[in-house]
Amino acid sequence: MKVLVKRTAGYQEFEVPREPSQTVLDVVTYIQRKLDPTLAYRFACRVGMCGSCAMTVNGVPRWTCRTHVDRVLEKETITVAPLRNLPVIRDLVVDMGEFFDKWARAKGQFRGEQTRRDDFAKVSPSSGNRRQADAGIECIGCAVCYSACDVVKWNPDYLGPAALNRAWTLINDVRETRNLERLRAVAGDAGCHACHTHVSCTERCPKGLSPTASIAGLKRAVAKALVKGEL
Ligand code: SF4
Ligand code: SF4
Ligand code: FES
Questions:
Q1: Residues 78 and 101 in one domain
Q2: How much is the average pLDDT of 204-231?
Q3: Which residue has its alpha carbon closest to ligand 2 atom 8?
Q4: Which tens digits make up the pLDDT trace of 160-192?
Q5: Which residue range is the domain that position 37 belongs to?
Q6: Are residue 151 and residue 62 in the same domain, yes or no?
Q7: Do 142 and 210 have their domain in common?
Q8: Could you give the number of structural domains in the chain?
Q9: What's the sign of the alpha-carbon dihedral 44, 46, 48, 54?
Q10: Quick one: 184 and 104 in the same domain?
Q11: Is 58 helix (H, G, I), strand (E, B) or coil?
Q12: Beta strands at 77-81 and 54-57: parallel, antiparallel or unpaired
């Protein structure tokens, strides 16, 4: 098959043999190991856990370690490029700094009040909050949604789907202590109200999460807090 790879200097063409159950990450790894050791790309777990292998494949952001060549091959060709909406460091490697900075800006870190000497908190799996928190907890921080979101492209300050999904997960965590601060952080111009509900993030999320639904939840929570005069 023909593989077009976006290098720092422009697209480069490679010929890669087909293998059974071959993934796009296998293809990129073959190129780097057998054809051009200078190709820069990033991966770690190869099993859909770490979120580091995301790239743009035939124009669509995807996790490459779980994307089979059979699913994406078009006319015996694959085009691989770095994720959109993030600065490129080299070849297929993007700088994730602003993506994780936005998690921090959306207060994406858990802060409870119990110590290690306290018993585990008992949170019923069937409670509404727990179900909503669980719906977004499996995020692997791959930035596929961030790369798919046009609002991020138009407004680079926008917190984006992953950071807002994380904020909503914590707002539903009954052990969390900073939720008003978090609502303030996501209520501004670059926060949940900037989302145009295009749903590209939800369509592309490889873990099947719905940042769009999380953002809708944040909008409701911000409106309620405003009505109560809490913000
Ligand atoms: S639903 Fe919102 S966050 Fe998701 S892609 Fe659309 S504008 Fe971006
Ligand atoms: S919400 Fe989905 S697409 Fe976005 S970073 Fe998390 S796992 Fe990746
Ligand atoms: S290499 Fe870890 S998710 Fe793909």
A1: no
A2: 96
A3: 142
A4: 999 999 999 999 999 999 999 999 999 989 999
A5: 2-94
A6: no
A7: yes
A8: 2
A9: positive
A10: yes
A11: coil
A12: antiparallel
Model-level pTM?
0.96
Query: pLDDT tens-digit profile of 17-57?
Result: 999 999 999 999 999 999 999 999 999 999 999 999 999 99
The domain boundary residue, chosen from 94, 120, 147: 94
Report how far ligand 2's centroid is from the alpha carbon of 142 (Å): 5
* 58 Cβ contact partners less than 8 Å away, ≥ 6 residues apart: 72, 74, 78, 79
CATH of the domain at 55: 3.10.20.30
The two structure tokens encoding residue 67: 């994307």
In this structure, are strands 60-63 and 54-57 parallel, antiparallel, or unpaired? antiparallel
The first and second tokens of residue 91, run together, are: 């070849």
Nearest CA to 155 out of 181, 108, 192, 100 is that of 192
Nearest to 159 by CA among 200, 191, 196: 191
pLDDT band at 198 (very low <50, low <70, confident <90, very high): confident
Query: Residue 84, Cβ neighbours under 10 Å: how many?
Result: 18
CA of 115 to the centre of ligand 3 (A): 33
Distance 63 CA to ligand 3 centre (A): 7
What's 176's domain CATH number?
1.10.1060.10
pLDDT, one tens digit per residue, over 130-156 is 999 999 999 999 999 999 999 999 999
Q: Are residues 101 and 90 in the same domain?
A: no
Ligand 1 site, residue 165, Cβ cutoff 6 A = no
